[in-house]
Amino acid sequence: FFHDFKELYTASLDQYIIEYDADTGKKIFLNTEAHDSPINKILCLNENVMASGDDDGIVKLWDVRKNKAIMQWQENEDFISDMKFVPEKRNLLVSGADGYFSVFDIRKKDVYARSDNLDDELLSITLVKNKTKVIVGSQEGILNIFTYGDWGDVSDRFPGHPQSIDALCTIDESTICTGSSDGLIRVISILPNKLVGVIGSHDDYPIEQLKLSHDGKFMGSCSHDNSIKFWDI
Question: Can you give the pTM of this predicted structure?
Answer without folding.
Answer: 0.93
